[in-house]
Amino acid sequence: MKELAVLSKAMMQERKDILLSILCGFIAGTAGVALFSASGYLISQTVFAPPLYTLIVLTSMVKLLGFVRAASRYGERLASHRATFSILSRLRTSFFAKLIPVTPGILNKNRSGDLLARIVGDVESLQHYFLRVAYPPIMVVMVFLSTVLFTAVFSFWIACLLIVGMLITAFVVPNLVLIGQRKINEHVRQQRAKLSTEVTEVLYGFRDLKVYGQLAERERQLQQDSAELATQQQRAATQLVLGQSMHVFVTYLVTWGVLVISAFLIADGVFAGVYLAMLILATQTMFEESAAMAVLPAYKLDSENAAKRLAETVPDQQNKGYDDQSHSSSKTHLSLEVDAEGEAVTIELSHVSFQYEGEWRSALNDVSLYLAPGSKTAIVGASGSGKSTILDLLLKLRTPAAGKIKFNAISVNEWNETNIWQNTRAVLQQSHFFRGTIRDNLLLSGESHSDEYVQDILHQVQLFNTSLDDSVYEKGENLSDGEKQRLALARAMLRKGRLWLLDEPTSSLDYVTEARVLQNLLTQAVEDTLLLVCHRLTGLERMDQIVVMDQGQIVETGSFEELMERKGYFYEMKKIELQMIGEQGA
Ligand SMILES: Nc1ncnc2c1ncn2[C@@H]1O[C@H](COP(=O)(O)OP(=O)(O)OP(=O)(O)O)[C@@H](O)[C@H]1O
To answer: What positions does the domain ABC transmembrane type-1 occupy (predicted)?
Structure first.
């Protein structure tokens, strides 16, 4: 299965531990069979009152085998679990590395709860692949072959019976379990995804659900989904137990068979009766060692489904794109970083179009735009006209369907996205706040600024009563929208970079505060390239260029005066705004 390739690669990297666990597992398995065989022989021998030295040799052998079995089992567990956890850690790292560059696209397609279930549940499911799918058959075959060889010395028929029993436990029983598991497993997975999606939505929308009186209904739904998941899991567990019971049943059936054949052979004088207990115990121990085979298909199915879903989440094409990007970036070593004397960034969009996945109409249609180094540009336009999408494309969070984007005359494909993020002062429409202090939330990239400097920036964004040690709750619950916006702006002001990409950074502020904040912002960014997406049209007189957008297209471009003189779209928007804020005639 192609999707399991990443797993095989991770297993190859842990081959030392894997080989060690196979070796220890083989020693433990054969020592187990030998231990019980020797015990059976010892018990039978004592009946004939053998010489003392025989008993001493036999008991010492039993003790020694017991010790070897315990020590090698310990070694096996240690090496196999170490390999499993290393594989798990490699899987997590590789999955996240692939996930991060394509996150916006993924969040578009998947509900966050489902995504969480995939990331946590599916990656964890893959850890079972080595321990419960790849490893047991190797062990079972090795222990089985040595036991069959050993029993063949006594009787060809007993060896044949063991082979038949082994085929039943290794193929028939697991396949019966698999038939039942296939259906149940898929249900469990779907139900788990549904439950985590519901839980996430209730947590995120708790307040709205409460205010709109939907909380009780949602809770009832959650309980129902949770009960359904428990039922499905119970069915899956019952199936597994059934498989294990069938395994035990076959073990006893074969043991009876060995007993009957041995009885005949002993009666015929083929071998002495003293070996009977030894053969019975060897048979039972061998099947005990292969008990893991009964549950193997369930884990195999689970791992394959998990790998498939993870591959769907981060499809190959996206992986390829990511690898190619990293490759080309590392080749060219481009850096957006510019020193204080260096030029600010030039941006050029030519004939750029973009369509969100699953949407029938384009969010951007043939957009061309030039931002000169150090220029100040504002993008205005109706809601949904594509303003934020332009910022997403510039931040390489999404890839245009057509057209070219260039930074400093070099295609954006050549730039490493991390480099763009590190050297851009971006404020997105929704900024996330983490639980911690104001200081933690401002210096997210670990910038080292003195408290005085940070406090000064807070003053520039008109936050005079905020202390750096004030607490911030999860998702910034204890901050107003205006405070969040100003903190996000302060965050950007504390970063380095000569490019500012700001998406409605002051939309929740009152006019007076907004004007002061923008004034300070423009002072700090005086020599930098700045792109400001905004709804309000106040303060745009200071911009070098205003771009007006409608339905994914640029409908007007020019300075404030030019657009007002043109009496077009912008002029009409400005007129409406003035009417709204009652400034007409002022
Ligand atoms: N994640 C998404 N998936 C699908 N369609 C989207 C997504 N984000 C935006 N769109 C659509 O793309 C179009 C442009 O959206 P965009 O957010 O760029 O507009 P905007 O001008 O920034 O709007 P606003 O001023 O309301 O923020 C809209 O029609 C919107 O419905």
So the answer is: 19-288
Give residue 260's Cα distance to chain centre.
55
CATH topology identical between 9-183+240-323 and 340-580:
no
Evaluate: CB of 385 within 6 angstroms of ligand 1: yes
CB of residue 383 inside a 6 A radius of ligand 1: yes
CATH 3.40.50.300 is held by the domain 340-580: yes
**Do you know the residue count of the chain?**
586
Q: Is the pTM of this model over 0.90?
A: no
Nearest-CA neighbor of 266 among 405, 174, 135, 154?
154
Three-state DSSP state, 531: strand
Note the pLDDT tens digit of each residue in 404-433.
999 988 898 888 877 888 888 999 888 888
**Which of the four pLDDT bands, split at 50, 70 and 90, describes residue 248?**
very high
Quote the tokens at residue 308.
């498939």
Sheet strands (E) in 171-236: none
Decide whether any atom of ligand 1 lies within 6 Å of the 108 Cβ.
yes
Res. 580 pLDDT band, cuts 50 70 90: confident
Cβ(387) – ligand 1 distance below 6 Å: yes
User: Rounded distance, CA 347 to CA 334, Å?
Assistant: 15
**Rounded distance between C-alpha atoms, residue 304 and residue 2, angstroms:** 10
pLDDT tens, position by position, 220-233: 999 999 999 999 98
Question: ipTM of this model?
Answer: 0.94
Q: Is any ligand 1 atom within 6 A of the Cβ of residue 384?
A: yes
CATH class of 9-183+240-323: mainly alpha
Give, in order, the Cα–Cα distances in Å from 241 to each of 235, 237, 429.
10, 6, 52
What six digits make up the tokens of 225? Answer: 């989904």
Q: Strand 347-354 vs strand 364-371: parallel, antiparallel, or unpaired?
A: antiparallel
d(CA 152, ligand 1 centre) in Å: 74
* Residue of 355, 360, 389, 533 to mutate, ligand 1, most atoms within 8 A of C-beta: 389
